[in-house]
Amino acid sequence: MGGKVLCVEVEKTRAEKAIKALRKTGLLLEDYLIERAGDKVLIPVAEKPESIDETLFRVVECAPGYKKKIAVNPPSYDLLGDVAIVRSKVLEHRASEEVVDALLKTHPRLKAIYVKEETVEEYRVPVLKLLWGTPVEVVVVKEYGLSFKIRLGKVYYNPRLTEEHRRLASLVRDGEIVVDLFSGIGGFPVHIASLKTALVLANDLNPVAHELLIENIKSNMRRLKGVIIPLNNDARDIPDHLPRKEVAHRVIANLPKASLGFAEVYDQVLAPEGILHLYVLTRDVYTSIDEVGSVLPGWRILSHRLVLEYSPGSGIYRFDIIKPEHV
């Protein structure tokens, strides 16, 4: 319980109106709980209101409890529609009840809260455990008005890449051929085709991601200026599925933990003077610059930027790299 303060005592039917009026005047004590006492409601106030109808309201002393202040750290959870996902490390420092309470206070319409326990690397899919609510299999998220259907626990999706999807799409020029080797459910391809009259070959090895990519193309069709061709292959086999080698003006390689292992594919797919957008997870960007130079000799790094922080001391960077005219 908190210390004694003044409270406005009011009938339950008049409580909402009284709370709004007191908040408007700045008298409402926001740090204290509004409590019920029988058929009355006790509203903590800083001082007695100057004008109060004693027949409707009464000022009394009370000892309400303090509101539980819970700091919600946005980077510690992802919001996908009406589902929140927290990382398992969050529960190492905070009780699950506290996490649930904090999220529901921030997002009262949540249907489920999941804990991301690990990531299965082959398809980069998360292993999710239900912490609260009703199991949810499918969610639809919006990015700049574009709709993306996601099957939870079946595909890779990171809502914190929304701005990066748009940023990269804005770099593409009309008429370009773009190959996205690890397209997932279509974040980069759909954004690109919504902004530019480009041809995007969108590939992903995960069959579920491939199916959702097709659905997401269809659901956004009216907004697309460009054309997306969905592919479901191992990225190393993509050169064999192109009409000719070195056809792409741009290649997107968003596989941060393993992107440096596909140098031969980039060389076969990308046209001379084309641009490779290479995503790399690193603790030292300058070490990664040396590694890029080692696996892609003669290629020139135009720029690099931090896309998002991955863990303390490490981040995912995008390297924009131009292929030389003659390798």
From TrEMBL:
<dbReference type="InterPro" id="IPR056743">
    <property type="entry name" value="TRM5-TYW2-like_MTfase"/>
</dbReference>
<keyword id="KW-0963">Cytoplasm</keyword>
<dbReference type="InterPro" id="IPR040601">
    <property type="entry name" value="Trm5a/b_N"/>
</dbReference>
<dbReference type="Pfam" id="PF18093">
    <property type="entry name" value="Trm5_N"/>
</dbReference>
<keyword id="KW-0808">Transferase</keyword>
<dbReference type="GO" id="GO:0002939">
    <property type="term" value="P:tRNA N1-guanine methylation"/>
</dbReference>
<dbReference type="GO" id="GO:0008175">
    <property type="term" value="F:tRNA methyltransferase activity"/>
</dbReference>
<dbReference type="Pfam" id="PF25133">
    <property type="entry name" value="TYW2_N_2"/>
</dbReference>
<feature type="domain" description="SAM-dependent methyltransferase TRM5/TYW2-type">
    <location>
        <begin position="77"/>
        <end position="325"/>
    </location>
</feature>
<keyword id="KW-0819">tRNA processing</keyword>
<keyword id="KW-0949">S-adenosyl-L-methionine</keyword>
<dbReference type="GO" id="GO:0005737">
    <property type="term" value="C:cytoplasm"/>
</dbReference>
<protein>
    <submittedName>
        <fullName>Methyltransferase</fullName>
    </submittedName>
</protein>
<dbReference type="InterPro" id="IPR030382">
    <property type="entry name" value="MeTrfase_TRM5/TYW2"/>
</dbReference>
<dbReference type="InterPro" id="IPR056744">
    <property type="entry name" value="TRM5/TYW2-like_N"/>
</dbReference>
<dbReference type="InterPro" id="IPR029063">
    <property type="entry name" value="SAM-dependent_MTases_sf"/>
</dbReference>
<keyword id="KW-0489">Methyltransferase</keyword>
<dbReference type="Pfam" id="PF02475">
    <property type="entry name" value="TRM5-TYW2_MTfase"/>
</dbReference>
